[in-house]
Amino acid sequence: MTLKAYLMGIRISTLAALVGWGLVVYFIDPEKTGIIGASIFYLSAFLSFAGIAILFLTWTRKKYSGSNFAFSHVGMSFRQGILLSGLVIILMILQSLGMLVWWDGLLATAGIFLIELYFLSR
Questions:
Q1: Among 61, 64, 68, 89, who pairs with 73 as Cys (CB 3.0-4.6 Å)?
Q2: Is 75 exposed, middle or buried (0-12, 13-18, 19+ CB in 10 A)?
Q3: 78-82: which pairs have CB atoms within 8 A and are 24 or more residues apart?
Q4: Which of 94, 92, 106 is nearest to 21 (CA)?
Q5: Rounded distance, CA 84 to CA 73, Å?
Q6: Nearest 5 degrees, angle CA 67-CA 69-CA 74?
Q7: Which of 35, 50, 54 is nearest to 96 (CA)?
């Protein structure tokens, strides 16, 4: 698979996830659907944020690495996009539960940072 085809697939998937997230926000009432509605909301938000982060990180790496852009950079962007999206969803869940305070956000960020450091050290 070429880099162009991979990025086009990510773009189309991100667009579909954004449309799905918009439909969830517009049509699903969280008070009536309960945990299922919230799960669908967070899943669609996760996919949307992950796609946006992957595309942004890939674009940034491609722009600043110049001509020596390798396909391995895409894998790193994919992993970091997933981790960033996971962090955003964790913070959103904590906020919706009324449990988000600054040290919880800092601990979640530190946990994601440690996971990324583990992958970078391997």
A1: 61
A2: exposed
A3: 78/54, 79/116, 79/119, 80/53, 80/116, 81/50, 81/51, 81/52, 81/53, 81/54, 81/55, 81/56, 81/57, 82/50, 82/53, 82/54
A4: 92
A5: 16
A6: 160
A7: 35
- Look up tokens 């964790």; give the residue: 90
The b-or-e profile of 96-121 (16+ CB within 10 A means b, else e) is: eeeebeeeeeeebeeebeeeeeeeee
pTM for the full predicted model = 0.91
C-alpha distances out from residue 27 to 12, 45, 98, 103, Å: 22, 15, 24, 34
Q: Give the pLDDT confidence score for residue 89 in this predicted structure.
A: 98
- How many whole angstroms separate alpha carbon 122 and alpha carbon 115? 11
The number of angstroms, rounded, from the C-alpha of 37 to the middle of its chain's C-alpha atoms is 19
Q: Are 41 and 17 in contact (CB under 8 A)?
A: no
